[in-house]
Amino acid sequence: MSLAEPVETALPTTTVAERAAAPATLPPVTAGALTWRGARRDDAGALHALQDQVSAADGEPFRVSLDEVEETLAAGYRDLDADFLLGFDDDGVLRAFAQADVRPGDRTAARAFVWGGVHPGRRGEGIGRELMAWGIARARQKLATSHLAGERVPAWIAVHSEDDAPASRVRLYEHAGFAVRRYYSCLGRDLAQPIPEPVIPGQEAGAASSAHAGAAAPSSSGSSLRLVAWTPELDEPARLARNDAFRDHWGSQPQSQVTWAEDRDQFMAPWTWLVVDDAPDVDALLASPDTDEETAAALRAGQPLVVAYNWAARYEQDFAVRGFTFGYSENVGARRAYRGRGLARAALAAGLRAMAGDGMQYALLDVDTANPTGALGLYAGLGYEKLDGSRMWSIEV
């Protein structure tokens, strides 16, 4: 069995808090003779500089922007003093950091994520191993006090790496007890190649071709589906569509309104396209056991129903690293009741045309290699090819 394949297991018989085995105190970090403290919002510049140096040294195909770091430090659900550990040298220069995170929207699995890095010039001093031990211990504490602490649901602590990560990072993860749990592929598509028209069922192909120009594609007679660019009033319906689309994806958890609003500094509204159903069968959806409570409430309130989407972003700081300009699809999906109709393909094609119209050379996205919805076939059919890959490592709790 591939490590990427989901494993069906019975629900745990003990709570997350019991299994987390949270330590009363965190292990000290003494290696490197650095001065350690929690984070502050005005550390964003130093954190950004260090993360950029770490990514460059490790050959990662991306960079984190200053805006992203500032957003991370501004999130109200993070305790900057307790969830971050920053190490400074005698000159006050940041040389190492670690962070432990638990997202507030998780419902059926409790997930903790650990990040960190050591300046390339300070590696080999044992700082990384001690930081990792601190991060795992803090992750256990956060799991044990999270909103899912009393639930009997799966839980894990996770880190990520590129497939070609340095051997030192692989050794660090293995020494800490992590094992590879999931594989992901970064796919790219040359936007100079012809892009299919974003046609949805019940629409004339010619009418849908206006999608790349920023106008809603009008529905033909008898069709209640519309392909439209993102607007603020469709933001919450898009969140609900994303949560429904990814309910059957391994490890995915709902986006709360708080986490959904994060990471917007790179968001590209003109590249983000949605399919809206103006006349859904509300009675059938409300009667379906697959309809989640938030969607049901929105239907009763007469809110718009987004049924498919392509959520896009522009990571300009990565252009030089990749060697080309590109638009990035953060998330592509369709509600489970609307799958098999080509709606996600239409939204993605509209996004590709918008990216090309803005002069981007490529379109990129990441996909779980064991995606259960046929997404790999969808992307291959639109001309995407694998560029590189990454993996998730975990410690099961």
UniProtKB/TrEMBL annotation:
What segments bear the compositional bias annotation Low complexity?
205-221
Keyword annotations for this protein, in alphabetical order, are:
Acyltransferase, Transferase
All residue ranges annotated as the N-acetyltransferase domain in the record: 34-196, 266-397
Annotated segments matching region Disordered: 202-221
Q: Which domain of life is it from?
A: Bacteria
This protein's name:
GNAT family N-acetyltransferase
Q: Which organism is it from?
A: Myceligenerans crystallogenes
